[in-house]
Amino acid sequence: MGNCFCKPKSKRKPKPYRMPTSTIGSPISDTHLIISDVLDYGSNDEYRFIDGRRFHNVINSKYFLPCDDDEFDRLHIKHYICKHIWQRNYSAPVKERLSSGGAHVLDVGCGPGTWLIEMANEFPKSHFTGMDITPVFPRESKPDNADFMEANILDGLPFEDNVFDYVHMRFLITSFSANDWKIAINEIVRVTKSGGIIELVEEELEPRKDGPISRLLFSALFMDLTSRNIDFTIYSHMIDLLNDIESLTDVKKEEIMASYGKWAGRIGSLLSDNTGLLFRTFKTRFLTTLGVENEVEYDKLIEAWYEELNEYKPYNVGYRFLATKK
């Protein structure tokens, strides 16, 4: 592991605040002005640097992926992979509601905001709010009906109850413990209006029917996630988790499969490349876990993994979970 050049912030856990809803535009009054007034986007203690990569510095967050330009590029590509595989940006029955106008949408863990900006452009009569634990989203180049804010869902969402018509959250399978998932989902339910829709999007990390090199590499990833107490199999019991919440009804799961690897064409190649970038991001960390002698040997292992995918022809499984608030 490389050197970390700044220590985690030792600030007291902030008390969740509640922004009042607005009757015009954003469900949070003048969010873009409020956020720019209270946040220091250039502060060095917002981040820590490991092996030349930038990571968030939020003490109570288990999210361990970088938040730098390389990671934003990976997330942008992952968005378009997901959109292509599913052939749409959402599965929730919200098109008519968003098209009619006046609907409020929340995207939790929005990252660089790719999904939210596309949705805001598609539905200009509704308002979209994106939030993430670090301010990695656009602050100026965004639609007029979109706002972004920095917040940690585990500290409580900064909204009143029953604000949003549609709440979307995805790609956080490497972020939460089992208890964190319960906290996060309960917060999402709290801020969703009666009759509002919740949509959660996740995928299995390891492709099915993969080979021994693939299983070796993913074992290193899973050991790391387990050491952080992260529940990376949430997709297997998300339905039960949602059904246990009394205020939710019409709980559903959609499932889709996609071929994985260069053998499967452009999308399969992009899927494997997306995972390959993760393996390379944590090269230093996984060297010890896997007992690989040096970086050169590790790079050879990654290349062998790509070739193995062509031999075993595995596939990836993704999920969309939907629920309606009573």
Notes on the structure:
- By secondary structure, this protein is an alpha/beta fold.
- The protein has a domain of 200 residues: Vaccinia Virus protein VP39 (Rossmann fold), CATH 3.40.50.150.
- Helices cover 37% and strands 20% of the residues.
- The protein contains ten helices and nine strands.
- The strands form two sheets. A seven-stranded mixed sheet has the order 5-4-3-6-7-9-8. A two-stranded antiparallel sheet has the order 1-2.
- The protein starts with 30 loop residues before the first helix and ends with a strand.
Topology readout:
Blueprint: H1 31-38, E1 47-50, E2 53-56, H2 69-86, H3 95-100, E3 104-108, H4 114-122, E4 127-132, E5 146-150, E6 164-170, H5 178-191, E7 192-203, H6 212-227, H7 238-243, E8 248-259, H8 266-281, H9 283-290, H10 295-312, E9 315-325
Parallel strand pairs: 3-4, 3-6, 4-5, 6-7
Antiparallel strand pairs: 1-2, 7-9, 8-9
Task: Report a brief summary of the structure.
This protein has 326 residues and is an alpha/beta fold. The chain has ten helices and nine strands. The longest helix is centred in the first third of the chain and has 18 residues.
Strand percentage, roughly? 15-25%
Biggest β-sheet: strands ordered side by side in the sheet: 5-4-3-6-7-9-8
Largest sheet entry: 7 strands, mixed
Rounded Rg: 20 Å
Q: Please state the overall shape, judged from the principal axes of the Cα atoms.
A: globular
Number of strands: 9
Which percent range fits the helix content?
A: 25-40%
Please give the count of helices.
10
In the CATH hierarchy, what is the architecture of one domain at level 2? 3-Layer(aba) Sandwich
